[in-house]
Design brief:
Layout lengths: L31 H32 L1 H8 L1 H4 L10 H12 L5 E5 L8 E6 L7 E7 L6 E8 L6 H12 L3 H32 L16 H28 L4 H12 L22 H4 L11 H14 L6 E4 L8 E5 L10 E4 L6 E5 L6 H14 L4 H28 L20 H17 L1 H34 L1
Antiparallel strand pairs: 1-2, 2-3, 3-4, 5-6, 6-7, 7-8
Protein name: Putative iron-regulated membrane protein
Keywords: Membrane, Transmembrane, Transmembrane helix
Organism: Microbacterium proteolyticum
Length: 488
């Protein structure tokens, strides 16, 4: 995994590259594909590296926010005792009395375990979109333990929401999400190109193969940086590909393409029917990460929360992490859904008619298509909720590793600079020496990737234009020098 123009022994002074033999018309140059990978890895790493670096650093912070949240908001999340809970209606009444003005909850999350608080969530026009006002209630004493803003159906509290928005959009709204889509789209491509270069070096090298798996401490200068880049890169490459693939599903343009593809092949997430006339509601994999929670209209009877929870528990809702949502509009059903994101995954849901207490629909995770299950697991792993603290620490280490690759890559590029000016890029014109089928395969792959990952397509065009300009300037200067010589 390297962003270098060529492999050299940096312990010795840089020397001019050896002349490259010109291939004949009927014999394309050997190694053209490796040269193409090197050039792609170089330009993508150089130009997209800052976006990947920001995503990696903010992602490392986000990975540990579930644990930080438990520490920073311990008072709000913890009850004063682990005594038996009073009915939900009493807890909701305490939260409504605390707010006053006839407030009615948009959702309730009962205490998941003894010693935890119940979260009663209210709409608040003064808060940003998709944000609710969460009142934390001691389930045994109905004491109000806290009052915080909670974002989306994930229920992220202020710290986690701030870091999540930084990671997703740099706090720049929808336009800011383009940065994360660019980073996620290119991360996998840069990683795959790096793997190709690493394999090529591993095949060519016989004595130094061990150095490709762990840095050789005896090396100095550029060679030491290259060793660290190669070794760290090969150890984190699978994680980088995983983060790229799962991160793309959150993106604006590529994410829509992925959703359409999943729906076309029958891999979409089953939707829960919430309308009382039998039509289905829309379900989404990423609702827990930041989509808006449904806002009920009208006054919800507090006692009904206990009733619908009891019905759902007799069916398929058997975990402690549950959210109860009143009808979002007339003709809608109550929804009780598991929100347990740790393994084993429990996201079963049931819809109940509040007037007749009849079950309208139910969705069980066990009945999800395999692709929908894989998507659910991938998202939870990406967010660090699947395996708790171990998952979070692994993500933190992975993000730090990716960030270090970007920094080391820039350091390698700077080490390669001549006495004056900037380091040169790997030799251009590799496709001119490729066989016809190679050129065709590269063009087809570029178009296909650009259609699925639009930001890759846009930036590929920028790379090509930049490459042409960089090649045009020296040729123009050379032509001008020859004309000046001819006129003397």
């Amino acid at each position: 995994m390297t962003t270098t123009a060529r492999d050299v022994n940096a312990s010795a002074p840089l020397e001019p590259a050896a002349p490259v033999s010109t291939p004949t018309a009927d014999r394309p140059a050997k190694g053209w594909f490796t040269a193409l990978l090197r050039r792609l890895h170089f330009f993508a790493g150089l130009l997209v590296g800052p976006f990947i670096l920001v995503a990696a650093v903010s992602g490392a912070l986000y990975a540990i926010t579930p644990t930080l949240e438990k520490v920073i908001y311990a008072h709000e999340l913890s009850a004063s005792s682990d005594a038996a809970a009073v009915p939900l209606a009493d807890q909701i009444a305490a939260a409504e009395a605390y707010l006053g003005d006839g407030a009615s909850p948009v959702a309730v999350r009962p205490a998941p375990a003894p010693g935890d608080t119940t979260r009663v969530m209210f709409a608040d026009a003064s808060l940003p979109e998709s944000t609710t006002r969460a009142i934390f209630v001691d389930p045994a004493t109905t004491e109000i333990r806290g009052d915080l803003a909670a974002y989306g159906t994930s229920g992220a509290l202020p710290l986690r929401h701030w870091i999540s928005d930084l990671h997703r959009s740099l706090h720049l709204g929808d336009v800011g999400r383009w940065y994360s889509e660019l980073a996620a789209s290119w991360l996998g491509i840069v990683a795959l190109a790096g793997v190709g270069l690493w394999i090529g070096r591993f095949v060519r090298s016989r004595r130094g193969r061990r150095d490709l798996l762990r840095p050789n401490r005896r090396h100095r200068g550029y060679r030491r940086l290259s060793g660290w880049h190669s070794a760290v890169g090969i150890w984190v490459v699978l994680g980088a590909l995983f983060l790229s693939a799962t991160g793309i599903t959150w993106s604006t343009f590529a994410g829509a393409n992925v959703s359409d593809l999943r729906a076309a092949i029958g891999g979409g997430t089953p939707a829960l029917t919430t309308t009382l006339d039998g039509s289905a509601a829309t379900a989404g994999d990423h609702a827990h990460h930041g989509d808006a929670a449904t806002t009920p209209t009208g006054q919800a009877n507090a006692a009904t929360f206990d009733a619908v929870l009891a019905i759902s528990q007799r069916l398929n809702v058997d975990s402690g992490d549950v959210e109860i949502r009143p009808p979002s509009a007339a003709g809608k059903a109550w929804v009780v859904q598991e929100i347990h994101r740790s393994y084993p995954t429990e996201v079963d849901a049931v819809a109940i008619d509040g007037s007749s207490m009849q079950v309208v629909d139910r969705v069980d995770f066990a009945d999800y298509p395999l692709l929908a299950k894989l998507s659910r697991w991938g998202i939870d792993l990406h967010m660090g909720t699947m395996f708790g603290l171990a998952n979070q620490l692994a993500l933190f280490a992975l993000a730090v590793g990716i960030a270090s690759l970007v920094v080391i890559g820039y350091a390698m590029w700077w080490k390669r600079r001549p006495t004056r000016g900037l380091p040169s890029a790997p030799a251009r014109g590799v496709l001119r020496h490729a066989p016809w089928w190679g050129v065709g395969a590269v063009l087809v792959a570029a178009v296909a990737i650009g259609l699925v990952l639009p930001f890759v397509g846009y930036t590929l065009v920028v790379f090509v234009v930049l490459d042409l300009l960089l090649g045009w300037r020296p040729r123009r200067a050379s032509s001008s020098a020859r004309r000046d010589t001819a006129t003397r």
